[in-house]
Amino acid sequence: MAESRGQWSGRIGFILAATGSAIGLGNLWKFPYITHENNGGAFVLVYIGMVLLVGVPIMIAEILVGRRTQLSPVGAFRSLGKDKPGGGAWTGVGFLGVLAGFTILSYYSVVAGWTIHYTYLSLTGELATLATDPHALQTYFGRDFLANGKLQVMYHLMFMGFTTGAVYFGVQKGIERVAKILLPLLFLILLVLLAYSSTTSGFNEALHFLFVPDFSTLTTGSVLEALGHAFFTLSLGMGAMLTYGSYINKDISIPRAAFQISLLDTVIALIACVIMFSIINSSDIEVSKSSTILFTTIPTVFAQLPAAGFFNAIFYLLIGFAALTSTISLLEVVSSYAIDDLGWTRRRASVTMGSVIAVFGVLNALSLGGNATLTSINLVGRESTAGVFGTMDYLASNWFLPVGGFLIALFVGWILGVRDTVDELQKGHGEMPWFKLWHVLIKFVAPLAVGAIIVSVILGREYQ
Ligand code: PHE
């Protein structure tokens, strides 16, 4: 059974693929941006606390359920929930994960597609020319690029094509191979950029901003945002880690793996911040308030450097790679449902699901200005939820992931039973003196913290 579903080649393969899922637009685009909005230091510290107290425990829980059942989310919750309180209803957690994977991928791939266009623009030199005038770049991005439906659809479809290809070739040949090559490359490129940024005049200021906390700037909203982001960036709450965990064997230590993945993810997010803030601080360019900083501010900073085109190209290529290893995990959740539950072959599942999501995602691609109706739809009624794109992002980040994470924590903390959990965690790990600590975190701390996000969303005081 396990053989036909696929398995990682070993521990490193799994760690790389799971880290690849975690590291993505969340780290390189969103984290620097929200850290800027939330005034650095104290926010960063709270975020690290959230990763340790809530993120790592839930990641352990997800991988545990995946390995225990050797199934993807729907089947996993069906089989474990069967003779427990709640019974078949737990299967809903799995379906929620599939829905979240579908939804997130349909718009994530649009943003990921931008990196292809920006790599292209960097190589032709156009970006460097545009970037000499920050206003020109802003106008270009909003009016000429986002509102150009044809381009948006084309890059989105292209990115979905790459993603589908990797999932098509399966766990070892596709997903793992992509992650094995791309992740080390990503680290390398980031290190080069980090080394470069340490020579800039804004480096010390950046370190100070990020690592010297000023708690007077911290609000309840930033605490909740830190928690929400910990979820998104660690790929939790929708069964991505659960699915990847279903391809590992019993000699891997789940707690150690979860810790390593979270550590790598956090380090990359912090390095991205140091790089971006160093170069922003070294220039006299005002950071625009919008979340488009990655596409409108960074190139103007690079433009002041020698070999701007080269730096820009590498930078966007790297972000595209990071996004690819994340989109792969999103499609994998949806495809593995069809493989495990509907009995489809991997090829049929990846191509069918990839195509359906690609077609649905066209609505997102056209809702950034390309099509007036799709752009003006706003079911939620807030500025950030405008268009089909905004609505999908809102649904996924504010509802599907937190609710999914909450239910996963409840299930593992309260329903699964201590014997099953201890038994599974000990495999590949041995004695666990900290088991009690983890159990308290997964039983009380994680559900309460995630519950707070859900309540704040219900009350209409979103964290983002
Ligand atoms: N963790 C990814 C990122 O930071 C996004 C993601 C979320 C991937 C949920 C899979 C599942 O970009």
Please describe the topology of this protein.
Layout lengths: L1 H4 L5 H12 L2 H13 L3 H29 L3 H9 L9 H34 L1 H6 L2 H13 L2 H20 L1 H28 L5 H9 L8 H14 L6 H6 L8 H29 L10 H4 L1 H5 L5 H34 L4 H21 L5 H5 L10 H29 L2 H9 L8 H24 L6
This protein binds phenylalanine (PHE).
Phenylalanine (PHE) binds next to α2, α3, α12 and α17.
Q: Describe it for me?
A:
- The structure is a single chain.
- This protein is mainly alpha-helical.
- Helix content is 77%, strand content 0%.
- The two termini are 42 Å apart.
- The mean pLDDT is 89.
- It binds phenylalanine (PHE).
- The site of phenylalanine has 15 residues, from α2, α3, α12 and α17.
Shape: globular
> How many domains make up the 3D coordinates?
1
Distinct small molecules: phenylalanine
The averaged pLDDT comes out at: 89
**Got a strand count?**
0
Derived from helix and strand composition plus strand pairing, the structural class reads mainly alpha
CATH fold-level label: Amino acid/polyamine transporter I
Low-confidence stretches: none
- CATH class descriptor name: Mainly Alpha
> How many strands, what sense, and barrel or not for the largest sheet?
none
What level of helicity do the residues show? over 70%
Question: What percentage of the residues does DSSP assign to strands (E)?
Answer: under 5%
Order of helices and strands: HHHHHHHHHHHHHHHHHHHHHH
Q: Over the alpha carbons, how many angstroms does the gyration radius reach?
A: 21 Å
Number of helices: 22
Distance from first to last alpha carbon: 42 Å
